[in-house]
Design brief:
This protein has 256 residues and is mainly α. The chain contains 10 helices and 3 strands.
């Protein structure tokens, strides 16, 4: 009987520990299947949540139960971020992650109250966007020089962004079959995985066609993800971060 009782007690402890460590998995599943967020957004939210829960870790290293974290403690966490010189936009994003996390837990009945209900979102000063003139755009589009895989790919990326107005995240999700060279259209997947079809200019289509032809000449590059339109030299789909680095590189090269 004692052995049986001990086994039951151990199972209870294991279940409690499992529950305590599964909040991040529950949240990720919520973002992926109920909110239909992109993989990159999910990774950012997951990283923010992990940092938040670890801030309240107990002495044994286990993160605190979300129901144990008070409004005052969350305010202390936000102050901690400010003391660490996080930018206000970053603090606002992390706070948005925590709000989504508790909204998820409330919907699933895993907490009974929301400690963020009386915490306002800091106001972020909106910057006036800088628009490129016609000459500046031409300078940027012509920045990739050469006929190798990388400059041809980069030229296609810049031309596609300019011609379609796609978000960077939408550009990274493009597949080869999303480009209709005959119909001169592109099918993009936006937020919530919604699809939309839009026209593409002749210069962009020519650049994409040239890139696809150049890509076919690179050994083994199509083995990992042959459906993806824009690949790196290892055959992996380019991430949003990689696309932004490419854009920033040519902005720096052209002095814009």
């Amino acid at each position: 009987m004692k052995a049986e009782a001990r086994t039951m007690e151990e199972n209870t402890v294991n279940e409690a520990t499992s529950t305590a460590t599964n909040f991040e998995e529950i949240f990720v599943s919520y973002l992926r299947y109920e909110r239909n967020m992109s993989p990159e957004t999910i990774r950012a939210y997951e990283k923010d949540l992990h940092q938040f829960l670890r801030f309240f870790s107990k002495g044994d290293g286990e993160p605190a139960q979300p129901s144990e974290i008070s409004s005052l403690q969350i305010r202390e966490y936000l102050q901690h971020l400010k003391d660490k010189n996080y930018q206000k936009t970053t603090v606002v994003r992390k706070l948005a992650t925590i709000r989504s996390f508790y909204k998820c837990l409330l919907r699933k009945g895993l907490v009974t109250s929301n400690p963020l209900s009386d915490i306002p979102t800091p106001k972020v000063e909106k910057k006036i966007p800088h628009f490129l003139g016609t000459e500046e755009v031409e300078k940027l589009l012509n920045a990739p020089q050469g006929n190798g895989f990388q400059p041809v790919r980069d030229r296609a990326i810049l031309e596609t962004l300019y011609s379609t107005g796609l978000r960077v995240s939408e550009l990274t999700s493009l597949n080869v079959q999303d480009i209709d060279l005959t119909g001169e259209t592109v099918k993009a997947r936006g937020k919530g995985r919604r699809e939309r079809v839009m026209p593409v200019g002749s210069f962009a289509l020519q650049a994409i066609k040239g890139y696809i032809e150049q890509r076919a000449l690179v050994p083994h590059i199509n083995e990992k993800d042959p459906d993806a339109l824009f690949l790196n030299r290892f055959g992996d789909r380019l991430s949003s971060r990689s696309i932004r680095k490419i854009i920033d590189k040519y902005i720096k090269v052209t002095g814009l």
